[in-house]
User: What shape does this take?
Amino acid sequence: MANVNVASMSIDALLKLREGIENVLTRRTHELKAQLAMLGHEIGFKARGSSLKGRSVPVKYRDKSGNTWAGRGAQPVWLRERLKDGATLEDFAVHKNAGRVKTRRRAKR
Assistant: This one.
């Protein structure tokens, strides 16, 4: 690249030079983004948000008033207050097999 004395250039020449530099940088940016997109596609990268976003989660904790919490994010106020009063998380746990009825298996004869 030729050494250019920008201090001695006219304003019009400087503006043209700046425009040329912006064009080259924009073109290079697009080229690099395209290369990155191809690399990401080759390795299976998907530019999405979290895979858990929008999914509903089963309730893990419930109180007698019907308040619920799935166990994700900050603890709700109702639960924090009861924990401060001496309760434990296990007191509010919703057990997956609470509604199931156990059946006996017959012995094979």
